[in-house]
Amino acid sequence: MLTTAFSYAFLVKHVVADAAVKGGNPRMATNRPIDANHVRSITKYLTDNEKDYILPPVTLNVRTIPAIHIPRGNFAMTAGFVVIGDETKFSVTDGQHRLAAIAKRSDSLIDTDSPFLSDSISVVIVAEPDVARIHQDFADAAQTKQIPASLLAAYNTREPLNRVLTKIVDGAALFAGRIDETSKSLSKLSSAIFLLNQVRGLVKELLFQDYALSEASIPARSLQSIGTTEKQDAFVSRTLAMLDILTRNMDPWRSVADLPTSGGPANQVVDFRKHYINMTATGLVIIGHVAFEIEKNMDPEWREDRYVDLATKIDWRRNAPIWQGNIITGDKITTTRSPGRIAADKVMEAIGVPVRRKSSTVPQPTQETFISERVG
Description:
- The chain has helices spanning 8-14, 36-48, 96-108, 131-141, 149-155, 160-171, 196-208, 218-226, 229-249, 253-257, 268-275, 281-294, 300-312, 337-351; strands at 2-7, 15-16, 58-62, 67-69, 81-83, 90-94, 120-127, 179-180, 194-195, 328-329, 332-333.
- The chain is an alpha/beta fold.
């Protein structure tokens, strides 16, 4: 194998795409079918972050080895140079969507002075004439694991929503040290109270009143609502104030806040999670949905009173009548959107918050579920 770096201008000229047709025989082509949405998302990333981005290396294939000049020596890895003529063509083993996005972005800049085409990407070049072996190389290169949503939220601070999320988690007495920021699901015996992605669902409700807003829509919506540092700081301040009122007045949050973050006493969280709606992702979404309506009122005293009512007048135990027939069916929590909206309307009616719609008009349950309710 050879490893080097190629400029985007060189890649556009010398790399030949050979994507399979959806529904056809993938063995007859070098690459899998192209995913247009994936190309668009990478292109948008390059467009939005042209001066501050990173692309992982790609793996290319060449059927015959080009002219390589290396010094003599018995080394495991050798530095040298390779001569590539205009007739040399490369195919893609891994990275076709990155290269398609580079080509698409390059086409949009063809009549500009952008230095984008002069940027380079690291490449690994494998000399392999056998298509079956190229397919195997692709399969071998695909042995990756998807990043858990919570970990991605913790790392991707380019997104304003994630920036306020981490500040809220660090600043709230209830959350600090009690949020699992790396896992895809909570184990039944976890002393963490929520996943980071579940708290992110709360933040999405507070900002957009829609925990299920598509990830593609979030950047534009975030820029509108919290696009500046001042707006982000104000949102974090209001959210922390709301969480503080709830934590001081609501069971079992006030008990949880007094617990250590580890050790035997912290294991009480496991029991709380079994018996309280507000210790689940569904409960967080309901709280966020109600808080979105409360925040519409300009009177700070009225808002504070409603949060106290939310904490004290609502019975958050799973067996409370208010949850029966909506999010509670049998002994399980229903995580589809419609029952959650019905439950939120009942909460607002109970604490004197205007309900903007009647429960009877809420759409029927869909397959869309609340942010990861997986425990176990």
